[in-house]
Amino acid sequence: EPTEGRVFAPPSARRLARELGVDVAAVDGSGPGGRVTDADVRAHVESGGTADAADADAEAES
Amino acid sequence: MVVGDISTGTDVAVIGAGPGGYVAAIRAAQEGLDVTLVERDAYGGVCLNHGCIPSKAFIHGADVAHEAGNAEELGIHADPAVDVAQMQEWKSGVVDRLTGGVEKLCKANGVNLVEGTATFADENKLRVAHDGEGQGSESIEFEHAIVATGSRPIRIPGFDFSDDPVLSSRDLLAMEAVPDRLVVVGAGYIGMELSTMLAKLGCEVTVVEMLEDVLPGYEDDVKRAVRKRAEELGIEFHFGEGASGWRGTPNGVVVTTETEDGMETEYAGDAVLVAVGRQPVTDTLELGAVGLEPNEDGFIETDHQARTEVDSIFAIGDVAGEPMLAHKASKEGVVAAEAAAGEPAALDYQAVPAAVFTDPEIGTVGMTEAEAEEAGFDPAVGQMPFNASGRALTMGDSDGFVRVVADAESGFVLGGQIVGPEASELVAELALAVEMGATLEDVAATIHTHPTLAEAVKEAAENAMGKAIHTLNR
Amino acid sequence: MVVGDISTGTDVAVIGAGPGGYVAAIRAAQEGLDVTLVERDAYGGVCLNHGCIPSKAFIHGADVAHEAGNAEELGIHADPAVDVAQMQEWKSGVVDRLTGGVEKLCKANGVNLVEGTATFADENKLRVAHDGEGQGSESIEFEHAIVATGSRPIRIPGFDFSDDPVLSSRDLLAMEAVPDRLVVVGAGYIGMELSTMLAKLGCEVTVVEMLEDVLPGYEDDVKRAVRKRAEELGIEFHFGEGASGWRGTPNGVVVTTETEDGMETEYAGDAVLVAVGRQPVTDTLELGAVGLEPNEDGFIETDHQARTEVDSIFAIGDVAGEPMLAHKASKEGVVAAEAAAGEPAALDYQAVPAAVFTDPEIGTVGMTEAEAEEAGFDPAVGQMPFNASGRALTMGDSDGFVRVVADAESGFVLGGQIVGPEASELVAELALAVEMGATLEDVAATIHTHPTLAEAVKEAAENAMGKAIHTLNR
Ligand SMILES: Cc1cc2nc3c(=O)[nH]c(=O)nc-3n(C[C@H](O)[C@H](O)[C@H](O)COP(=O)(O)OP(=O)(O)OC[C@H]3O[C@@H](n4cnc5c(N)ncnc54)[C@H](O)[C@@H]3O)c2cc1C
Ligand SMILES: Cc1cc2nc3c(=O)[nH]c(=O)nc-3n(C[C@H](O)[C@H](O)[C@H](O)COP(=O)(O)OP(=O)(O)OC[C@H]3O[C@@H](n4cnc5c(N)ncnc54)[C@H](O)[C@@H]3O)c2cc1C
User: Among residues B169, B177, B172, which one has the least CA distance to residue B87?
Assistant: First the structure.
């Protein structure tokens, strides 16, 4: 994946992901072009997706 | 000097009250922490006292005078006389008002203000030396420290700012009269902003620059727009020449430059302004006492929360790395403060916009076309020249363009480059677009007020989609 | 007049080449349709020839002259002489360039241009009468027609624009000299923009307005900022008075006004500008031939695709309803063109931003606090005064503020009101925020370049969140 590291999500969704300990890069985006929304982050948590704060932190750095 | 005569404790000690430090201090206090802000010079740091604010005040003043004197085409005939000492006084009033405001805001938020130079004693203790004999010092114990000591101008060998005719940007911005002739060493953004301003105020400016063009890091067409206008203002450029020395003459100075091949040339001026870049200030801190060491570029390294290798210590702003810009410092200040308060804050922004207040202005954010390609995107690029913008034409200022860079597949806006009137303001919309993960269509479908320069942002997005109305689509 | 001597067919016939019509024509052509654009006067319509563009050109000219003459505080001493005939020439050059550009863009996109007045023959046929005796006429058969006939100034009883001293905005913008004294009837946006411009050029302006304040529809604090500056410029306001008549005098005119209680007052001027609003142009069209009738406000009613009750006919721009603004016209033009091409286009935008080019400028988008409440939201409102903005202070122009209105629960930005320098440009970021469904946090977390006016947008968003740095949070 050449464009790896770049996640298209508004700041509010990125912050929510941090708070929920989710790696935002692992969330499937349902918005235009695959943009990650708040709802996508919540759905990811509910479906038992990653909830690893360390991952999220590492991702946030890029 | 008496050491340790007072000792206090604080949750967060912030060192340096520039746009990094004072913002960190206020936000930390808003988070309910007990905060102590130590500053040895002036509230607002370089930015408010010797950088962003005074330079923009002078640039505005020069613009007003220059525009009035060059509007014959509009039927306006004026021959403005500029009293630079008075402009200086006005500028100082603006600075005082803002620095006074910073002090008031700190106090209103409950930040403890301490004047003096802070050095580390250990990982949880600062020593603050107060200026002046017999003023003593104090110790401050902290849970967290935030280092925000900023930067200072780089010196080049042979040019010592303590010599009268060798000016730093700070010296220049304290001028009481416009020099008749000035040699400027460095065509980076500070050199170019100040040269343009001085030329508009009637100074004959000679710029010498080691590289082959102005404004390293910007794209060719962006550079060209700025260089062209500068040349029209009478600024003389000499590229590929490094300043190697200077000597005083009865009328000022003669600066010697050297090409790579060793060819020497001399340029005369009333004085020489050295603006070749800035370097982080780490030597005021005794970093060794906490086991920290600047990296090879002189910066203190930090992580995604602006935290250094020492858990209790954060570093933000110019001292913590590029881009050395006030708003980057403030952002890091907010994140460090929130992290110190235990919030899950992170420096996870997509882009730091940047502006250059030359004529025309530059505003950029995110990726250029080349950067997008390098990052693996297939870029869709759209452009709108200001000479097709109704608003730009009614302002008599229609050089330049807006360019928008997006990912062709998804449409996501990756960045933008603007050169032209109000570019520094126009870039805000593109910054929001980049940060939000907006697509070209989102920007294009948003109704933009007519007649505005901002319409060019929309038009550039439409151009990238092959749907522009006011430009031919490529 | 010879009728029907030529007959052609086209996919889309567009009537009127203003910012509604020419944009619709170009976009329809881009969609691959055969397009015929009929205009009886000048390409660009009111906006480019007699509205947005000429007014903004004069406003800019007046600003340059006025700023130069009033910058003593900055150390700039100038006494500019303004040659209005020359400014007029410059303005005309700008207009010509833009209208020429519109014509060229139409041609480059393959739009057929027809000069003349179009009237409906039936639901699929136009008749176009060419100007001048013996020029004949032609018939154009169409699949779809797009009506974009715009608006004209409202006349008030007793004031006939064909009388020399009774000026419309169009007459005023053709001036070759600044009147010494002018009576302006109407303090709406056009009256206020022109009054401010004239006052800056040295005209003594008396404004009479039936309502109790300037700029109906704007909030009190927004009005106040504009009225205050206007008064400082020497503009005299008389509210609660309607213009009831005028008579010529050797020096110009005397205008009589009447209050609700019947009290009369007289105001003298060189001439009287009537700017009490604009009304849609439907009487040039023979709408009856297709069974269409304007609604009670005179507009042609349309649906979410800008389609009228007659399936083959769209109506866009000023003729199709409020807000009568160029960019609303263009948006409707794009949607009508795409709908005619069978695309699922719709007028589903959230908000039409609006600007008033007074001093200070106004830029607004979306809901005010009161409107948000009415719509059932619990509004969170944040504000940043420009007198706390570093950039505004360095511009010597720090009246006004940015206000952001959001939904407290979700944080969604619902609207914004800006009054101050560059308000017309700054509103673009808020328009994108409103359109994208951005939250306060999204705006606040986006890094804004320092020092810019746009930082005030971010600060206002932070203020609404209780997290502002440069203002005290309410
Ligand atoms: C001429 C010029 C124009 C500029 N224009 C712009 C612009 O338009 N936009 C922009 O974004 N940036 C601009 N900059 C850059 C901007 O000024 C810096 O990026 C910004 O000031 C960095 O903020 P900071 O908080 O990191 O540090 P600084 O503003 O440098 O503040 C550091 C503070 O720390 C204090 N300090 C240092 N050591 C100690 C110690 N041991 N104890 C106590 N106090 C200490 C210093 O006295 C200083 O006040 C400009 C700079 C210059 C020189
Ligand atoms: C002084 C002034 C300042 C303004 N400033 C602004 C501003 O800053 N921003 C803004 O958004 N708006 C502004 N406006 C409003 C703006 O001009 C209108 O909203 C805009 O022009 C509407 O565009 P339109 O395409 O609907 O119609 P118009 O621009 O009115 O164009 C209609 C065209 O149709 C032609 N026409 C009419 N009937 C026929 C027919 N039967 N056959 C052929 N041709 C016909 C007319 O000749 C005209 O060219 C201003 C208006 C004025 C008067």
Answer: B177
